[in-house]
Specification:
The chain contains three helices and seven strands, in the order E-H-H-E-E-E-E-E-E-H. It is of the alpha+beta class. It has one domain (about 1-170): Alpha-D-Glucose-1,6-Bisphosphate, Chain A, domain 4 (2-Layer Sandwich). A hairpin with a 2-residue loop joins strand 2 (about 40-50) and strand 3 (about 55-65). The termini are far apart.
Length: about 170
Amino acid sequence: MHFAIAHEFDIPLDALELAVISPNLVDKFGATVHKLGVGIEKVTERSRSLKNGTLERVWHYQAHIKLPKFARGYVTPDMTAWDEQTIYEMGKHRGRWTIVPNVKPEWRKYFSATGTYAIEPLGDGRSRRVVQGDLELRVRVVRQVAERLMLGEIKKAFEAEAATLRDIATLI
């Protein structure tokens, strides 16, 4: 399932980009997801490196979901966690991201989520962020329903990130 999410900001590209690379983003984002009721319990930064205009970071997410009774014997809470690996190049105003689920390595073949992240100037001190991705759950029966549910949560998370970026960028 391919998706694209765009947000426009009344913020210049350089200020928005400084918010994207801010070391405070993860904590403020975590507070925003709680405030907006996104299905994320906790977000932490596992690693971060900013060298030569390239940000490489790994954020760890723990979902806040109530598992259906039928799934509780198979899915443990730690299996509802994932790492988002992001590489963002300031010179190109774009990056790429990959989701790595917190499941046994042999189970990872059933899920993939990758994409791009770009910031574009719109003129008049405005900018646009476009997140594109491909989400695929390779399981029978529940695939389409599960992908739609995941995509809904992905959209909520990027809405929360957009709100956080607006807050941080106005402080810069």
